[in-house]
Specification:
- By secondary structure, the protein is an alpha+beta fold.
- It is built from 15 helices and 18 strands.
- Strands 2, 4, 5, 8 and 9 form a five-stranded mixed sheet that branches. Strands 10-11-12-16-15 form a five-stranded antiparallel sheet, with no helix packed on it. Strands 1-3-7-6 form a four-stranded antiparallel sheet.
- Helix 2 packs across helix 8, helix 3 packs across helix 4 and helix 3 runs antiparallel to helix 5.
């Protein structure tokens, strides 16, 4: 009952921490916006994400043009909203371009990062350098990925070997290869879990490998959901070690007992929940259904793949009494594996729909392309499994009942009557036949059907199981890659959110006559964000050879001809090198006509026109 209470407590701890969210967060908006040019310095920098995020002291950094940090305090949530992060800036910031670098942890435990810029007064050069690339493309990220794969492998060996002993052949628990497989699975899972717990802090914050032993960082890791899941896994493995120790002392009693089977099943399910509670299943749509499906998927994977490895070892070895694994045990595992594969396919189809979201995403996203490879590998496994089931069925059907088989010593003592002078070979021709069988093997001494060659079928089965296990390992590797890849549905939601929230920029280049022979200049108009409401307008005049041109005056008016609105004067002001206005308000969407008047000398000016489409405010 102690084991049942402990498992129930860990289930409550992990499931209680899981709430609805969108898998893999994305930046949906910021204030100031990316690329914005502000007249005065802001007091705060605020980021909004598509889901709740967690962060550390260095998750949000604002860097000046000289690469100096100008946010003295760490980020905080805005008004208790978990999908926001805000930092307060230092006062009296100089003009120029500022870089905002951020790195947060999404609800499914994966770190995400990015950067954007805004300017005060006017854009400038900046010395700030922000690391580019994936958050996983670091030494710690790669190590974390390796240990994640080792953890999956250890789970498969531990669960599969235990299931084989508990459900298929209890006597296998006394065999050294099976015990060794259980120990290897437990050690691999325990060691990788401990390593992931230490690496979790630097993995989230882009720290070095040496910071894995920072106790303060480890304390913050334990307080988060991924850290709590890893701690729960270690506790469950400690309980499993106690049960395995008892099993080693009394293997037969531990295997046959109903309480042993129940405790083993509960531990296996609880171990899979430690994955489901802290990865993709814990965030996104239908979390209440996704988490049990993910746990079942992992459990079925362990029973099938770990059981295949166990069967392969037993097919290659004999027991301590010289006997091979019984055909009935192989048949029971075949039935168990068929059920496990059915669960794998069913839960896999659901998870694929949940994470991909559309047929198009299978060919346009990294997650979708990786999933296609996994599906192809699964098809190959099913093909190999069909041959394994045929070999198993023939082996089981061809094997005589256990009660009808005399023991090896008994068969050796059978004497066959023969005539004096009969060939020596006749005397030993059929030592394994029944004592009262006719000499010819059939009625009247006629030749009967060829004897059943169990050894040949076992060799064929062993070859197919080897192929099936190799493909299973490939699927396990692909699954590990998928757990670290942003799901296609989340990528689509992130792109849609970014498209709706991030500012758009309209850039127009309009040629005009500079008033001298064969000299035609251009004026470049930048309108941001190019939609209804307040906009920023910047205008730069270029000479015919591409150099900057200084003009005495530049005017811009906008007219909405269809609705009869305008002209609206943008009131451009000379900014010593370019002209700008930061408070142009456009009241309606649609096509607007730009009237640009360029005065090239004290007495010469030219007016040119172009159009721009103003977008509505996103809903």
């Amino acid at each position: 009952m102690t084991v049942l209470a402990l498992v129930a407590f860990l289930f409550a701890l992990l499931l209680g921490a899981a709430g609805p969210a969108f898998a893999h967060a994305g930046l949906s908006g910021s204030d100031p916006a990316d690329g914005a040019v502000l007249k005065t310095e802001p007091r705060y920098v605020t980021l909004t994400f598509t889901e709740s995020v967690g962060f550390s002291d260095d998750s949000l950094r604002v860097l000046s043009p000289r690469n100096e940090r100008v946010n003295p305090r760490p980020a905080q949530h805005v008004d208790g909203k978990d999908d926001t992060a805000r930092v307060e800036l230092s006062g009296k910031l100089p003009e120029g371009t500022y870089t905002v670098a951020w790195r947060v942890v999404s609800a499914d435990g994966h770190p995400i990062s990015g950067a954007f810029v805004f300017s005060i007064g006017a854009p400038s050069e900046t010395a700030a350098v922000v690391a580019a690339g994936s958050p996983d493309d670091t030494a710690v990220g790669r190590l974390y990925g390796v240990f994640r794969h080792v953890a999956y492998s250890g789970l498969a060996l531990l669960v599969g070997a235990a299931a084989f002993v508990l459900l298929c052949w209890p006597a296998a628990g006394a065999l050294r290869p099976v015990r060794r497989l259980l120990v290897v699975g437990w050690v691999a899972l325990a060691a990788s879990t401990a390593a992931m717990l230490l690496l979790r802090g630097p993995y989230e914050t882009a720290g070095g490998v040496g910071s894995a032993f920072d106790l303060a960082r480890l304390g913050r890791t334990v307080g988060g959901r991924p850290g709590a899941a890893l701690i729960a896994r270690l506790v469950l493995l400690a309980v499993a070690a106690v049960l395995l120790g008892r099993w080693a002392r009394r293997p037969d009693a531990a295997v046959i007992g109903v309480r042993g089977r129940l405790a083993g099943a509960l531990l296996a399910v609880a171990l899979t929940v430690t994955w489901a509670a802290a990865e993709h299943a814990s965030a996104g749509i239908q979390v209440a259904l996704a988490m049990p499906a993910a746990a079942l998927h992992l459990l079925a994977m362990g029973v099938w793949l770990g059981g295949l490895v166990t069967l392969l070892l037993l097919l290659r070895r004999r027991g301590p009494d010289g006997r091979e694994i019984p055909a009935a045990a192989i048949g029971r595992f075949s039935t168990l594996a068929f059920g496990a594969v059915a669960v794998l396919v069913g839960t896999g189809v659901y998870q694929s729909w949940r994470q991909v979201g559309s047929w198009e995403a299978l060919s346009t996203t990294s997650y979708g392309k990786t999933l296609v490879v996994k599906v192809a590998a699964v098809v190959l496994v099913l093909w190999a499994a069909s041959f394994s089931r045929r070999w198993t069925a023939r082996l089981v059907q061809g094997a005589p009942p256990a009660a009808a088989l005399p023991s090896a010593p008994a068969r050796e003592r059978v004497r066959v009557a023969q005539a004096v002078g009969a060939p020596t070979s006749a005397a030993g021709a059929d030592l394994d036949a029944a004592p009262d069988a006719p000499a010819g093997g059939g009625p009247g001494g006629e030749a009967g059907p060829p004897p059943f060659d169990a050894a040949a079928y076992r060799r064929g089965l062993r070859r197919m199981v080897s192929v099936e296990a190799a493909l299973g390992v490939l699927i396990l590797v692909i699954t590990t890659v998928l757990t670290g890849t942003q799901p296609s549905r989340a990528a689509g939601e992130r792109a849609a959110a970014a498209s709706a929230e991030e500012p758009r920029v309209q850039v127009l280049t309009v040629p005009f006559d500079m008033g001298t022979a064969n000299h035609q200049g251009t004026v470049q108009i930048t309108l941001a964000p190019g939609r209804v409401g307040e906009n920023t307008v910047e205008a730069v005049v270029y000479t015919s050879d591409g150099g900057l041109a200084a003009v005495p005056e530049l005017r811009l008016t906008l007219t909405q001809d269809e609705l009869g609105i305008g002209p609206l004067d943008a009131k451009l002001k000379d900014q010593k090198g370019y002209w700008a206005a930061y408070d142009l308000r456009l009241p309606m969407p649609g096509v607007w006509t730009l009237n640009i008047t360029v005065r090239t000398t004290d007495i010469d000016q030219v007016t040119v026109r172009d159009t721009v489409r103003v977008a509505p405010v996103p809903r």
